Amino acid sequence: MIDTYSIIYRYYEQGSTLCNLLIKHSEQVAAMARQLAERLVAHHTPVDIDFVVEAAMLHDIGILGTDAPGIYCHGTEPYICHGVIGRSMLDEIGLFRHALVCERHTGTGLSMQEIKERNLPLPHRDLLPLSLEEKLVCYADKFYSKSHVGPARPLEVTRRKLEKFGGDTIARFDEMFSLFGEPDYSSLDLEFRHNQS
């Protein structure tokens, strides 16, 4: 496995509020993604678990380039660009597969049609998770907030928060739910509480 922490520390000041927030969120997403991936493997669905964990740890690496002061980001780009920024950062160091996870995890992914219709400041191409591993990270990410760090949100709360983005977003979330099911919150919450103490 690659050392994801050393990659994060290339760009983020170790111990800074932003770095700590990024790592906490990424660890939470990685724990859930690992849990779901292990469940799939137990049911004979091949998944690259090591890659899922690495990609989950790096999926938000581009947030430092965005203007999101509520989560200590003081860059210049709109927050919705953090996935594309992350892809560029990881492409530069040769982590091309991880870079695609960065670009494709925003919301439940974004189609080129959605990007054009909403006039989003993103490349005019599909930014949709394609592989099982990409979908796992995208799905797990939806259960956690960086602005209100805490235990995983329940499934219905998570789904409700996505409804404002329209039917395509919900349809993709429901497809991921049919693939991965509901997380086991009890073990994730225990892990979160242990790490907080």
Fold and architecture overview:
With 197 residues, the protein is mainly α. It has a single domain, classed as Hypothetical protein af1432. It is built from 10 helices and 2 strands; from the N terminus they run H-H-H-E-E-H-H-H-H-H-H-H. The protein has helices at residues 4-11, 17-42, 49-58, 82-92, 96-104, 112-117, 132-141, 155-163, 167-180, 185-196, and strands at residues 67-68, 73-74. The protein has a two-stranded antiparallel sheet. Strand 1 (67-68) and strand 2 form a beta hairpin. The longest helix has 26 residues, at 17-42. The radius of gyration is 16 Å and the shape is globular.
Low-confidence runs of at least 5 consecutive residues: 192-197
Average of the residue pLDDT scores: 94
The description of the largest β-sheet is: 2 strands, antiparallel
Going by helix content, strand content and strand pairing, the class is mainly alpha
Distance separating the two termini? 27 Å
Architecture, according to CATH? Answer: Orthogonal Bundle
Physical arrangement of strands within the biggest beta sheet = 1-2
Tell me the domain tally. Answer: 1
Task: Please count the helical segments.
Answer: 10
Name the helix and strand elements from N-terminus to C-terminus, one letter apiece.
HHHEEHHHHHHH
Helix content: 55-70%
For the record, what CATH class applies?
Mainly Alpha
- CA-based shape: globular
Number of strands: 2
What is the CATH topology?
A: Hypothetical protein af1432
Query: How much beta, percentage-wise?
Result: under 5%
Kindly provide the radius of gyration, computed on alpha-carbon positions and rounded to a whole number of angstroms. Answer: 16 Å
